[in-house]
Amino acid sequence: MTEDERVIRDLVDTWMAASKAGDTTTVLSLMSDDVVFMVPGHEPFGKQAFAAAAGQSEFRIDGSSEIRELQVLGDWAWLRSHLDITMIPPVGQPVRRTGWTLTILHKQPDGHWLLTRDANLLTVQPTAAQATPR
């Protein structure tokens, strides 16, 4: 594993740990100012919309991310990951989403890698009660 690959894997681990801790400031620090997120059913959105949504969320997040492919090409890198995320509301049932992401990162002049594009293809998974035939 190269140093850049290790740093990118650390970035993903930091993102997940900060998400679980509700640390939006750290998550925002891991993305470029011109980041673009793409999720099914919505127009692409950027850092400001991400921050606004995260700031209004009362959900706790738990989950895991498994990098399946990681390629570094100079100052650019992409990774394909499988995510398994559970959104836990203060009241009500948790919502589990799983699926694939394709992420592009860009190495900054100071050497830090930042997430710059993310296509998130997670889908809601039925709960045990919903999956049980009646």
Morphology: globular
Instruction: Specify Rg, calculated over alpha carbons.
Output: 16 Å
- Counting DSSP H or I runs of 4 or more residues, the number of helices is 4
Counted beta strands: 6
The H-and-E topology, N to C, reads as: HHEHEEEEEH
- Class based on secondary structure composition and strand pairing: alpha+beta
Largest sheet: 6 strands, mixed
How much helicity do the residues have? 25-40%
Q: In percent terms, what proportion of residues is strand?
A: 35-45%
Measure the end-to-end span: 50 Å
Mean pLDDT: 93
* Low-confidence spans: none
Molecular structure report:
The chain has 134 residues and is α+β, with helices and mostly antiparallel strands. It contains 4 helices and 6 strands. The chain has helices at residues 3-21, 24-29, 47-56, 128-131, and strands at residues 31-38, 60-73, 76-88, 95-107, 113-120, 123-125. Strands 1, 2, 3, 4, 5 and 6 form a 6-stranded mixed beta sheet that branches. A hairpin with a 5-residue loop joins strand 4 (95-107) and strand 5 (113-120). It starts with a helix and ends with a helix.
In short:
The chain is an alpha+beta fold. It has helices at residues 3-21, 24-29, 47-56, 128-131; strands spanning 31-38, 60-73, 76-88, 95-107, 113-120, 123-125.
Question: SSE layout and pairings?
Answer:
Blueprint: H1 3-21, H2 24-29, E1 31-38, H3 47-56, E2 60-73, E3 76-88, E4 95-107, E5 113-120, E6 123-125, H4 128-131
Parallel strand pairs: 1-5
Antiparallel strand pairs: 2-3, 3-4, 4-5, 4-6
Task: Pick out its properties.
134 residues; globular; alpha+beta; single chain; 4 helices; six-stranded mixed sheet
